[in-house]
Amino acid sequence: NAGVTQTPKFQVLKTGQSMTLQCAQDMNHEYMSWYRQDPGMGLRLIHYSVGAGITDQGEVPNGYNVSRSTTEDFPLRLLSAAPSQTSVYFCASRSGQVGEKLFFGSGTQLSVL
Amino acid sequence: DQQVKQNSPSLSVQEGRISILNCDYTNSMFDYFLWYKKYPAEGPTFLISISSIKDKNEDGRFTVFLNKSAKHLSLHIVPSQPGDSAVYFCAALQGGSEKLVFGKGMKLTVNP
């Protein structure tokens, strides 16, 4: 019963580098999303997907790309990392109707120097 | 502009007493509200939810109250236990939207 799996758990990047945060779920959930958590800011939605091939922007999408080629995976790409992207990133998924509870991964701590 | 507000950053209570966590919202179109709990180095976990057609929902020691006219909800934990020590997030959803909006969180400490 893995649930939502995020890799890596920790990552340090230099400004301008690119990387992909991985997220996979084994619950056959249609909806997946990415949030970032910053001190004093709560959780803010970056991008979300309601199914394979369908993605949309959240509250803070700039600097991030996503794609959804399978139901299970929803990677988050940083094209050119900036110090402002230093944060803890959470992937989440849910099934069923809007309002169903989200299941979160354990997070990726990203530092951009 | 914060649509979901948790104005108190922290709360400390004694074991066995009641914990009351408050949340205010500004968007009158929100019609579904959820509470999540988060331990350090873990992802948030769902705690309890309430639809705008109700004013109260209970699940064991946890009760959420919704006052739509005041745009206010609260989470009551009775009795509080040391294992309840965590950060609690209030979240809201507008009907038809896929975007769950979170508050900044509130750190609850339950002292033995």
Description:
The complex is a heterodimer of chains A (113) and B (112). Chain A is mainly beta and 113 residues long. Chain A has strands at 4-7, 10-13, 19-25, 31-38, 42-51, 54-57, 64-66, 76-78, 87-94, 103-104, 108-112. Chain A contains no helices and eleven strands. Chain A is globular and about 40 Å long. The model of chain A has no long low-confidence stretch (mean pLDDT 93). In chain B, strand 7 (62-67) and strand 8 (72-77) form a beta hairpin. In chain B, strands 2, 4, 5, 9, 10 and 11 form a six-stranded mixed β-sheet that branches. Chain B has a five-stranded antiparallel β-sheet with strand order 1-3-8-7-6, with no helix packed on it. Chain B is mainly beta and 112 residues long. Chain A binds chain B through residues 4, 31, 33, 35, 40-45, 48, 50, 56, 58-59, 90, 92, 98-99, 101-107, and chain B through 4, 6, 32, 34, 36, 41-46, 49, 51, 89, 91, 93, 95-105.
The unreliable regions of chain A are: none
Strand element count of chain A: 11
The global form of chain A is globular
From N to C, what is the helix and strand string of chain B? EEEEEEEEEEE
Question: Which pair of chains forms the biggest interface, and how many residues does each contribute?
Answer: A-B, 26 and 27 residues
Count of individual helical segments of chain A: 0
Strand content of chain A: over 45%
Biggest sheet of chain A: strands, sense, closure?
7 strands, mixed
Helix content of chain A: under 10%
Biggest pleated sheet of chain B: 6 strands, mixed
**Bulk shape of chain B:** globular
Summarize model confidence as the mean pLDDT of chain A.
Answer: 93
* First and last CA, distance of chain A: 36 Å
Q: How much of the sequence of chain B is in beta strands?
A: over 45%
